[in-house]
Structure formats: structure tokens, C-alpha cells
Automatic annotation (TrEMBL):
Ranges that cross the membrane: none
Sequence similarity: Belongs to the metallo-dependent hydrolases superfamily.
Protein name as annotated: TatD-related deoxyribonuclease
An annotated Gene Ontology molecular function: metal ion binding
Species this chain originates from: Chthoniobacter flavus Ellin428
């Protein structure tokens, strides 16, 4: 088996995880900027984090032969403070030409507040001005349906944004349809307890197809499984899906989306 992990917060994972991913067939890992488990006290904390994502972590991954890519932003959970958000957004352009940066993400909404929406629009503008791909985090279950609608409307309201250059992550059964209907890519996140289990992910694949869909583990410092993507591939195999179908979903699809940025190459 070969697969891409398109959404893993590797700064929170151990070297054992890197090793296990390589053994399972991982060919590249992509790490969106996110909440660190605590609120950072100022823009300097983000500056250091962006250095970690673009310098230290790719070197750590390279020791295991794994290409590491990243996405940059201030995550929605910390964007309630619009002054801090503006300062962080102004730091991002100087990192955009680092060789492992794929785009702006994971932006989006957390509690669907007015300030979060304002910062989301600023990120969309940043992506449009620099012609960047976009990776979107959608809120947790209680706010997901409304939040996903608000995010899609914000993206569609900006005529510079092309939906097929944006992936809306953490879709579930009640949001995947609206994402695909509007022309965006949909990310299905596999978690042991929240978001989606491997079985539910395969159900969604069987109902909606895999034309513009990827799978990811979103592994971080919480309960999560860096091998969730290959485990879901095994669930597909168990249900009789062909090796070609599985390869398309877990390997070729992420390459189709991410390859829109020529920096993303996989051997
Ligand atoms: Zn994430």
C-alpha cells in the first residue's frame, strides 16, 4: 500500500509515529498550522511555530525518508483576538516562499463568531493575493453545519477564489454534499471518537464517490491515530473495493489536489 497523509500535526507526534507511517506506506505528510494546545501569548509565538513548520520539522521527517509539507495561518481558535490575528497574518508572506509551503491553512471557523469570520476573510484575501491553495478546518459537531455554510459562502463571495483549489476538511455525513455540490474538495478526518470512524468514512465514499475527496488522520496531541488512513484502506479492502480504487482515494487524490502547487512532488 502507498498513501499520503495530507493532514497530520507532526510537531505533536513521536519518532515512533514517523517510523510506523513509513512502514505502513506513507509517501508524504502535510502539516497545517493549528492550535498548539494552548493560546500563544503574541505574534512571536507564531513566528517561532512557522520556523518549526518550515525548517525543523521537515528535517526531522527527512531522517525517516518522509517528505514533509506545510500550510500557514493563524488557526480559528486563536483568531478571536483580531489585533493578534492581523499581526500574525502580516508575518505569513515572508514564509510563503519556503520550499515546503503548500498554501494557507487550516483556516476556517471554530465557534462561528463575527471575529472569526472577519479573520477568515482576511486569510482568503491573503491566499487570493498570493495565489495560494486553501485548506479549511470546519467547526466541531454542534457548530459544523452552520459553520460549513458560512465558510462556503465566504469563499464563494470572493471571485478570485477557485473552489477546486480549496479543500474543506472534517466533513461529515451532513456537510459533505454541500461541499461537493459547490465544487470544492472534501476532506474526511478519521478520529477514534469524534469526527469520522474508518467505517463511516467508507460509507460516505460509497454514497458520494471519491472524485474530489481525500482521507486524513489529523493526528495531533489529542486522541488520534497517525495510521488511520491505512487502517481505512484495510476497511475498504475488507468490503471488496479494488486496489486501484483504494490507491486513487488514499494516494492519487491527494496528489491531484496538492499537485496544483508545483512544489508538491512525491517519488
Ligand atoms: Zn488539524
Amino acid at each position: 500500500m502507498r498513501y499520503i497523509e495530507p493532514h497530520g500535526h507532526m510537531v505533536s507526534r513521536t519518532t515512533d509515529d514517523y517510523e510506523a507511517m513509513i512502514i505502513a506506506g506513507c509517501r508524504a505528510v502535510c502539516e497545517p498550522a493549528f492550535w498548539a494546545g494552548y493560546d500563544r501569548s503574541g505574534p512571536e509565538g507564531f513566528y517561532d511555530y512557522f520556523c518549526q513548520l518550515t525548517d525543523y520539522e521537515p528535517k526531522r521527517a527527512a531522517k525517516f525518508g518522509l517528505p514533509h509539507f506545510t500550510w500557514l495561518c493563524i488557526n480559528p481558535k486563536e483568531s478571536e483576538d483580531t489585533t493578534l490575528a492581523a499581526e500574525v497574518i502580516s508575518l505569513i508572506p515572508k514564509f510563503l516562499d519556503r520550499p515546503n509551503v503548500l498554501g494557507i491553512g487550516e483556516i476556517g471557523l471554530n465557534k462561528n463568531t463575527r471575529n472569526e469570520l472577519k479573520v477568515l476573510e482576511q486569510h482568503i484575501d491573503l491566499a487570493a493575493r498570493h495565489d495560494q491553495l486553501i485548506l479549511v478546518h470546519t467547526p466541531h459537531l454542534e457548530d459544523k453545519f452552520k459553520g460549513t455554510r458560512l465558510i462556503l459562502d465566504a469563499l464563494l463571495a470572493d471571485s478570485r477564489i477557485k473552489p477546486d483549489r480549496c479543500i474543506i476538511d472534517h466533513v461529515e455525513e451532513h456537510t459533505i454534499q454541500m461541499v461537493l455540490d459547490a465544487g470544492f474538495w472534501a476532506g474526511i478526518t478519521l478520529y477514534p471518537e469524534s469526527k469520522t470512524t474508518p467505517a463511516r468514512a467508507v460509507d460516505m465514499f460509497e454514497v458520494y464517490g471519491g472524485q474530489r475527496v481525500w482521507l486524513n488522520s489529523a493526528c495531533d496531541w489529542g486522541r488520534s491515530d497517525p495510521l488511520a488512513v491505512p487502517k481505512t484502506a484495510i476497511e475498504m479492502r475488507r468490503r471488496g473495493h479494488s486496489e486501484e480504487t483504494i490507491d486513487k482515494l488514499v494516494f492519487q487524490n491527494p496528489i491531484r489536489f496538492l499537485g496544483q502547487n508545483p512544489r508538491f512532488t512525491v517519488r
